[in-house]
Amino acid sequence: MQDAFDFIGQAFGQFIHYLVDALLGFFGGLDDAVSGFIQGTSDTLGIAPSLLSLLVLAFGLWLLWKAVRAIMRQAIIVALIWAFLGATVLSWLIN
């Protein structure tokens, strides 16, 4: 009876070990992909790869998206205002 539970315990421990190794490999690869994306984006735009810079970039792109949505609603004046604000925020950020 002792051998049966020993075998079950070893099999369970080995399963957990493989599961943890697989998750570490997955999240390690995901981390490399995200850091490569952020580094490539910041190098191309000439901005610092900091969280604040990326938040300002996302905010500027959101403003431009609001301009596109306003154009689709045929609100030209509002679209020009959103586009101006988005371009202003992105021009502050990009060198």
From TrEMBL:
The chain crosses the membrane at residues 7-27, 47-64, 76-94. The keyword Transmembrane helix applies. Keywords: Membrane, Transmembrane, Transmembrane helix. It comes from the Bacteria. This is Uncharacterized protein. It comes from Halomonas nitroreducens. The lineage of its organism: Bacteria, Pseudomonadati, Pseudomonadota, Gammaproteobacteria, Oceanospirillales.
